[in-house]
Amino acid sequence: PLRWVLVGASDIAATRMIPAMRALGQEPVAVLSGSPERGRRFAERHQVPVAAKTLDQALSVPADAVYISTTNELHHEQAVAATTAGRHVLCEKPLAMTLDDAADIVRAARAAGVVLGTNHHLRASPVIRSIQRMVAGGHVGRPLAVRVHHAVELPQRLRGWRLKNPAAGGGVVFDITVHDADALRFVLGREVLDVTATAVNQGLAAPGVEDAAMAVLRLDGDVLACAHDAFTVPHAGTALEVHGTDASLLATDAMTQDPDGEVVLRRGDATTPVDVGPRDDLYVTGLRAFADAVHGEGEPLATGADGFASLAVALAVRDALRSGTRTPVIPVS
Ligand code: NDP
């Protein structure tokens, strides 16, 4: 079982990742916080044996892997240090804040010969996986369009840096659009070529930080996608629809952290439920695949290259917001 160093005394580590690690018999052996006091409290509350005070100290604790869930501006330096120290790395999204930094992480992991994963949890969603299978199996015919409804109300406890601090990677595009980008690439097996977008501040985020956005994306083969991403919409629920020449797939509660949601296939007047299979915890599924990759079997559900690609889409969306023009997405080289 993997021994993990947690870099970041974060909400996602506490609420999802530590429980998922323990469900698999994996063990968090150390946590690093920028604040010794918060680190000590986090370690105590979650029974993590070591509260490290520096990254060097955290990386000197015997362990197999490092899970990085700090604010986004810190991912690059921490991921490079962890891979260089010979640890396998699972990094939160966005992988970094710039494509140069993301490429640097991917290179560092390759040079060290370690596994690098990006924690795009939606690839582990039973609903998203069943849509991917149905599309790949030709059940919708030729895909024409995808609609992603990912406008939610940001929980009170997460209304910190996401809303206030652009330097830490705040804003809805780095938080939610980046997940949509990965889900689209996964579900369609196609790359996003270019984007246009509009974002606004609907009064939840600090001035200058976007808390709601709509993006239009063009993928390989002229598949169109649209995404509505927001921190400000309490009652919409999430959804994902794939529309093809032969049928449409309609999923409700598709873009969540839990294994809920339903999928139907609609063809003419006939609507057929799709069996989404076992409803395993998304984070358990992701960690299981990561551990398998460490043991030489397969790859993480989302690799470092996938993290680069989703970031490239998010950055293109941000550029499009500023320029107001259709913006190409820089491809993975
Ligand atoms: P948090 O705000 O909980 O944690 C981020 C950092 O903020 C922590 O590393 C911590 O710093 C600091 N922090 C936490 N609590 C406090 C506090 N009370 N006072 C001051 N500072 C505090 O972030 P999230 O867990 O929401 O997000 C962390 C990362 O995970 C991000 O990259 C985000 O994009 C990603 N994420 C991914 C999700 C997924 O499902 N894949 C879901 C949610 C987030 P320190 O470590 O120095 O103590």
Describe the structure.
- The chain has 333 residues and is of the alpha/beta class.
- The protein has helices spanning 11-23, 36-45, 55-60, 75-84, 99-112, 126-136, 161-164, 172-188, 282-294, 304-323, and strands at residues 3-7, 27-32, 50-52, 65-68, 88-91, 116-118, 143-151, 192-200, 212-219, 223-230, 239-244, 248-252, 262-267, 270-273, 327-328.
- The strands form two sheets. A nine-stranded mixed β-sheet has the order 14-13-12-11-7-10-9-8-15. The protein has a six-stranded parallel β-sheet with strand order 3-2-1-4-5-6, with helices on both faces.
- The relative contact order is 0.16.
- The mean pLDDT is 98.
- Bound molecules: NADPH dihydro-nicotinamide-adenine-dinucleotide phosphate (NDP).
Overview in brief:
With 333 residues, the chain is an alpha/beta fold.
How many domains, as an integer?
2
CATH class of the largest domain: Alpha Beta
Shape: globular
Indicate the structural class.
Answer: alpha/beta
- Name the beta content range: 15-25%
CATH architecture of the largest domain: 2-Layer Sandwich
Taking all residues together, what is the mean pLDDT? 98
Widest beta sheet: strand line-up: 14-13-12-11-7-10-9-8-15
- Say which molecules are bound, naming each kind only once: NADPH dihydro-nicotinamide-adenine-dinucleotide phosphate
State the fourth-level CATH superfamily of the largest domain. Dihydrodipicolinate Reductase, domain 2
> How many separate helices?
10
User: In this structure, how is the largest beta sheet organized?
Assistant: 9 strands, mixed
Please report the total strand number as a whole number: 15
Radius of gyration: 19 Å
Helix and strand pattern: EHEHEHEHEHEHEHHEEEEEEEHHE
End-to-end Cα distance, whole Å, is 34 Å
CATH topology (fold) name of the largest domain: Dihydrodipicolinate Reductase, domain 2
Helical fraction: 25-40%
Contiguous runs where pLDDT drops below 50 for at least 5 residues: none
